[in-house]
């Protein structure tokens, strides 16, 4: 009797979409990882742990570094509260993305294709591809800068080396999705370890750090501080992560019942929340390091990643300070290109329902980012890549609203989500977050173009 009711509910949910659910997202790894039906909650949590860390990568990618470094050098610890609030927004949005994938069996790209008319869906796809290309651009350039700083490899060659991640993803995905998750988690731990040493050497003021997490009115009153604060928000909440998360939560073999989905939502939310708290720590560490070294020394105009690398050694009193900074940057760039390639595949398949061989799909995604990066790097060098990084963040800000609003709309829709629809308080909170993101990113875009 319960089974019949469940099927009837699912039928009603399916009828609210323009198109029936198609082939699953990332079919080669869909429902490929077993979830124990019995045993302790720890075993079940560990079975679901992993996707959250792939998502967290986007919150500590090279695009975040420039804004965090600039904020710390110019305003000390004051903008830590902005990093914290941005991450809290991200935790909410990623939880909604995971829920959408688990309940509907669609990733966000598929949901947009199945809900909106074809012209609207195609428009959203174009905007999303631009955003992924912009995000990839930041990651590719970040990794290339790290290779240049650590090994003296010219930027153009560094950009080309990052194309090899296509082969890495193909190899690891054939081995199993857990291998990709393990590599990503290993690189995140490397980044965390590097910054733990940096914190030890920089000896920041604990009292000032705690004070920095308390929001102040000055952030809004000071136009320059507000601009950097919105830049931090724009670099923190990444649109491609919403598409990515709604897909990779479906790699788990949770039961397709009300109880199974409810359990999957609980563990997937816990996984992404813990991972994003770790990302908050990394982002905060970058800003704290900048505040404790550059701001303390009166160097308030440090905003370039390369400048930060060269200045850290004399200020910290050890060359290891710069080396570990470069290693962390390289790890962040490598991680981000891996997850960016996956996100590109998800978006192309989801919006277009286009099925082509995995290597070609990933190669197209990677080339969209690498070609402009190679051209600009070859023509303008390091100064050109810095401008390209700024442009990438503007494009991301422009696209973010077009990912957040559909996500909030779908998860607040009773017909689409059934009994899993957001609670009234969550509906209100999610729309408030969406409104804040839309307004602040519109302001950032205006200031960047005309300010």
UniProtKB/TrEMBL annotation:
One Pfam family in the UniProt entry: Nramp
Membrane topology listed for this record: Multi-pass membrane protein
UniProt KW keywords: Cell membrane, Ion transport, Membrane, Symport, Transmembrane, Transmembrane helix, Transport
Principal location class: membrane
Residue intervals passing through the bilayer: 41-59, 79-102, 123-145, 151-172, 179-201, 225-244, 265-291, 311-332, 363-380, 386-408, 429-446
Oxidoreductase among keywords: no
Location of the protein in the cell: Cell membrane; Membrane
Keyword Transport among record annotations: yes
Family: Belongs to the NRAMP family.
HAMAP family: NRAMP (MF_00221)
Function: H(+)-stimulated, divalent metal cation uptake system.
The protein's name in its UniProt record: Divalent metal cation transporter MntH
Provenance organism: Brevibacillus choshinensis
């Amino acid at each position: 009797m319960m089974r019949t009711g469940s099927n009837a509910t699912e039928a009603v949910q399916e009828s609210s979409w323009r198109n029936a659910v198609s082939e699953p997202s990332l079919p080669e790894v869909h429902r490929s990882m077993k979830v124990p039906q019995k045993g302790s909650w720890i075993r079940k949590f560990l079975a679901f742990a992993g996707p959250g860390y792939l998502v967290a990568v986007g919150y500590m990618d090279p695009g975040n570094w420039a804004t965090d470094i600039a904020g710390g050098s110019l305003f000390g610890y004051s903008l830590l509260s902005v990093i914290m609030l941005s991450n809290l927004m991200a935790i909410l949005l990623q939880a909604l993305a995971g829920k959408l994938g688990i309940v509907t069996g669609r990733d966000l790209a598929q949901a947009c294709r199945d809900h909106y008319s074809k012209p609207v869906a195609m428009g959203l796809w174009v905007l999303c591809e631009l955003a992924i290309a912009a995000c990839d651009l930041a990651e590719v350039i970040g990794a290339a800068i790290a290779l240049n700083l650590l090994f003296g490899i010219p930027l153009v060659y560094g950009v080309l080396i990052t194309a090899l991640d296509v082969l890495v993803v193909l190899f690891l995905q054939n081995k199993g999705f857990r291998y990709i998750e393990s590599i990503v988690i290993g690189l995140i731990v490397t980044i965390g370890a590097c910054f733990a040493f940096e914190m030890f050497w920089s000896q920041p003021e604990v009292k000032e750090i705690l004070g920095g997490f308390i929001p102040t009115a000055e952030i809004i009153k000071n136009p320059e501080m507000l601009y950097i604060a919105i830049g931090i928000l724009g670099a923190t909440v990444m649109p491609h992560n919403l598409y990515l998360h709604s897909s990779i939560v479906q790699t788990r073999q949770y039961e397709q019942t009300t109880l199974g989905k409810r359990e999957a939502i609980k563990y997937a939310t816990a996984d992404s929340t813990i991972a994003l708290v770790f990302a908050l720590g990394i982002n905060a560490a970058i800003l704290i390091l900048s505040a404790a070294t550059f701001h303390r020394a009166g160097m308030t105009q440090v905003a370039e990643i390369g400048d930060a690398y060269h200045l850290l050694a004399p200020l910290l009193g050890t060359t290891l300070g710069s080396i570990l900074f470069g290693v962390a940057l390289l790890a962040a760039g490598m991680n981000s290109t891996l997850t960016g390639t996956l996100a590109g595949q998800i978006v192309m398949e989801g919006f277009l329902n286009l099925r082509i061989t995995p290597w070609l799909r990933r190669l197209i995604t990677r080339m969209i980012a690498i070609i402009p990066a190679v051209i600009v790097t070859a023509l303008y060098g390091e100064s050109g890549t810095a401008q390209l990084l700024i442009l990438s963040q503007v494009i991301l800000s422009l696209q973010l609203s077009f990912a957040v609003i559909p996500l909030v709309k779908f998860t607040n829709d009773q017909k689409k989500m059934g009994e899993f629809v957001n609670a009234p308080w969550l509906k209100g909170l999610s729309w408030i977050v969406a409104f804040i993101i839309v307004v602040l990113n519109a302001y950032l875009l205006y200031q960047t173009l005309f300010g």
